[in-house]
Write a structure and sequence with these properties.
Elements (H helix, E strand, L loop, with lengths): L22 H11 L19 H11 L13
Amino acid sequence: TDGNGIDDQCECGDQSGDGRVNVVDLIAINQAIFGYVLASPLCDGNNDGQCNVSDIVAANLKIFGRPAYCSRYPPP
């Protein structure tokens, strides 16, 4: 939905599941880290196999144009 050529189901960092990586995902990743919600497979935005503070940083970088990789969208 965001026109970046990555399928919505593969948007690493899209913890909210809306097909975009944005500020809502920063909050959603934070909630997953602290156990308020379950981490989705897309929570891992830095491809380390975990949903943690590093993924907040990765999602923030993706918002500003850096690529994010995870098991659903592996590095080239």
